[in-house]
Amino acid sequence: MTQLTGHERAAYVQNMFTRIAKRYDLMNRLITGFQDVRWRRRVIRLADLKPASRLLDLGAGTGDLAREALRQQPAARVTAADFTLEMMRVGQRRGPLDFSAADALRLPFANVSFDAAVSGFLMRNVIDIHKALEEQFRVLKRGGRIVILDTTRPKKNILSPFIWIHMHFIIPTLGRIISGERDAYKYLPDTTENFVTAEKMAALMASVGFQEIGCQRLMFGTIAIHWAEK
């Protein structure tokens, strides 16, 4: 799959998430040892929401980050945007949210519309990281915050063999058992290993104009949270 580019890759990703939507959240919990819940709490804290803040949860999937935002700041105005209809349908069955169909490369929102933009495991799926960052920069207000939670290419260390086993054996096996979609969960390790490093992501954020960029690596260096300000 990693050899696909452009619209062919976008179509593959959309179809894949349609197939795994019903088991997506459960799989996230299992393959991270339920750590993703804690990571999402941190993402929202870093977004620094105030009462009446407008938040964009981009690539929202079923709306986990959006719901965490409303738990932390019930008065926030949250838009959950995704380009896979089935993911949003599953999310709506778990409780009402303001969902919006949106392509991360062509956001249907006006300039300077949001006080913060967050995403969870979106950026490794987009076909143009720079353009996706530009669009988020465009819709943020001056002083607005961006927070990105995603996989990152792990550095070689003593744990590398165990990380490889987890990504290439445990995750696909769980994917086959839980969702019946082993191929979809071969996609995760493949894209993680071919995704940009945490350092490169920070450089890309700077290249579109973000400032005060920070980064935290998690889960033995396979996950990173980036944050910055417009």
Write the layout of secondary structure elements.
Blueprint: H1 6-20, H2 24-31, H3 35-47, E1 54-58, H4 64-72, E2 77-82, H5 85-93, E3 99-101, E4 114-120, H6 129-139, E5 140-151, H7 160-179, H8 184-194, H9 198-207, E6 211-218, E7 223-229
Parallel strand pairs: 1-2, 1-4, 2-3, 4-5
Antiparallel strand pairs: 5-7, 6-7
Helix pairs in contact: 2-7, 3-4, 7-8
Structure description:
This protein has 230 residues and is of the alpha/beta class. The protein has one domain: Rossmann fold, CATH 3.40.50. Helices cover 46% and strands 21% of the residues. Strands 3-2-1-4-5-7-6 form a 7-stranded mixed sheet, sandwiched between helices. Strand 4, helix 6 and strand 5 form a beta-alpha-beta unit. Helix 2 (24-31) runs antiparallel to helix 7 (160-179) and helix 3 crosses helix 4. It is globular. The termini are far apart. The mean pLDDT is 89.
